[in-house]
Design brief:
By secondary structure, the protein is an alpha+beta fold. It has a domain of 105 residues: Band 7 domain (Tetrahydropterin Synthase, Chain A), CATH 3.30.479.30. Strand 1 and strand 2 form a beta hairpin. The protein contains 7 helices and 3 strands, in the order H-H-H-E-E-H-H-H-H-E. About 4% of the residues have low confidence. This is Flagellar protein FliL. One of its GO terms (cellular component) is plasma membrane.
């Protein structure tokens, strides 16, 4: 009499193919999320336009009229002047990375030639406040902001804080003639 052994009745796991399928599904979902995020994140120009629109809206100005006027002002070749806002050497300690960051830079502001005298008078009256805002902006800047080629975020912050300090939007843009930063 031959006895047959019953088949193995242990439940088996999903196996290697099941794990591979799960990994592929997760990878596809991650790629789809990355592509969707990349499509939704605004460009630097979009962010700058939005920041200007929000600043104007908070002042109660008409967005359509002023955005066309600002673009036309600089596009028409209206004469501009550069005014030195200061030379700075900032050292700051980053306790998270246990590093020290040395930032050495000179900042110039671009104003319309017709408004240069008015800006220089306002700048002379508020020099310490403006320079403090520039220093605080650089102290608050992330290393990634400083290594960005155009320094767009830092420039916008300096323009906004300077115009707020002088009480009028006289400063059109900021130019760094030299900026060096060393992380030790």
């Amino acid at each position: 009499m031959s006895e047959t052994t019953p088949p193995d009745t242990k439940p088996r796991g999903p196996g290697m193919m099941g794990l591979i399928k799960a990994a592929v599904i997760v990878a596809v979902l991650v790629v789809v999320e990355i592509v969707a995020a990349a499509m939704l994140i605004p460009s630097a120009e979009d962010t700058e336009t939005l920041a200007r629109d929000l600043a104007r809206a908070s002042k109660g100005e008409d967005l359509a009229a002023n955005s066309d006027k600002d673009a036309a002002t600089l596009a028409e070749g209206e004469a501009t002047s550069e005014v030195e806002l200061g030379s700075f050497n900032i050292t700051r300690f980053d306790p998270e990375n246990d590093t020290t960051l040395n930032i050495d830079f000179t900042v110039f502001g671009v104003v319309l030639a017709a408004e240069q005298v008015e800006f220089q008078e306002a700048f002379a009256a508020h020099t310490s406040r403006i320079q403090e805002q520039i220093v605080m902006t650089m102290h608050g800047a992330q290393t990634s902001d400083l290594s960005t080629a155009g320094l767009g975020l830092i420039k916008r912050q300096i323009v906004e804080k300077t115009n707020r300090a002088v009480g009028k939007p006289l400063l059109r843009e900021v130019v760094f003639t030299k900026i060096n930063f060393v992380q030790r």
